[in-house]
Specification:
This protein is mainly beta. The protein contains one helix and 16 strands. The strands form three sheets. Strands 14-7-6-3-4-5-2-1-15 form a nine-stranded mixed β-sheet, with no helix packed on it. A four-stranded antiparallel β-sheet has the order 11-10-13-16, with helices on one face.
Length: 269
């Protein structure tokens, strides 16, 4: 059977391995699955879109985009439907769609006479309260230790997506408040002093996410870590929250999630 691959640009890509002899395995043909990338960040133009593509076979380096679909998002609190317009390359947008904190939304994608749906609730994300920097961090005391601190809400279970862009590397991870409920939490990073210098900037963001999305991202990150390469291909099928209402066995890959990221830029001292 053909191995189907789906790849999200922020997490993984094809891993090419060189060897002395090229070996081609004969996988049977199969029907590609629809991939729906519906991770929207409120107020961020580059992430206010739905991207559609299909899976491809193991050896192909091309992931076909889908432009002939009907895409909409419904505000289920007001019953307002926002139709998304295809702008090419598998992208569907609607500049009038401005989700609100606490709002509930349903994505509908109609493709090849089948209807796919998923739901998401826009959660409030915490603000970074302050940043602590230690110049003698790490086991040897020769690293920068930088912690971004935020207040966890004690009245509910909370799950977070944290992201960091630095001159050294980009970081993408998830965490929760299982052992820190209601406390000040910190997202901590260590940098070698030869890599990070005073005056360098760190772009940090934190996002409240649902428990289901946390579990989904944890699986993706676990597969990347087990491979020993964060850019390796997932070797199995990871289902998201998208349901094919017409034919459940023909499930789509991907996820629909709307979030509000809070950003904080820190300058190393």
């Amino acid at each position: 059977m053909k191995k189907l691959l789906y790849i999200f640009a922020t997490v993984c890509s094809l891993l090419f391995v060189s060897c002395e002899e090229d070996i081609t395995l004969d996988f049977d043909k199969n029907i590609p699955r629809l991939v729906i990338e519906g991770n929207l960040f409120v107020g961020e133009t580059d992430y206010n879109k739905i991207h559609l593509s299909t899976t491809t076979d193991f050896y192909s380096g091309v992931f076909p985009t889908v432009d002939n679909a009907d895409v909409s998002i419904k505000d289920t609190d007001s019953n307002t439907v926002y139709q998304f317009t295809n702008v090419g390359n598998g992208d569907f947008t609607n500049e009038l769609f401005q989700p609100e904190i606490g709002g509930n939304y349903e994505l509908t994608v109609m493709y090849n006479n089948e209807t796919y749906t998923a739901t998401s609730t826009l959660l409030t994300s915490p603000e970074i309260l302050n940043v602590n920097q230690k110049d003698d961090g790490g086991f040897g005391g020769d690293s920068y230790e930088i912690a971004f601190n935020f207040q966890d809400d004690a009245n509910e279970e909370n799950y977070y997506l944290v992201q960091m862009i630095s001159p050294v590397d980009n970081y993408f991870g998830v965490t929760d408040d299982q052992f820190t409920n209601g406390n000040i939490m910190n997202d901590m990073y260590f940098f070698d002093k030869e890599d990070l210098k005073p005056g360098d900037t760190l772009d940090h963001s934190i996002t409240s996410i649902s428990k289901q999305y946390h579990q989904y991202l944890s699986k993706l990150l676990s597969i990347a870590n087990q491979s020993g390469n964060p850019f390796s291909s997932p070797m199995g099928t990871i289902k998201g929250n998208i349901v094919n209402q017409t034919n459940q066995s023909n499930f789509a890959l991907g996820y629909f999630h709307i979030a509000k990221r809070n950003h904080y830029t820190y300058t190393v001292k």
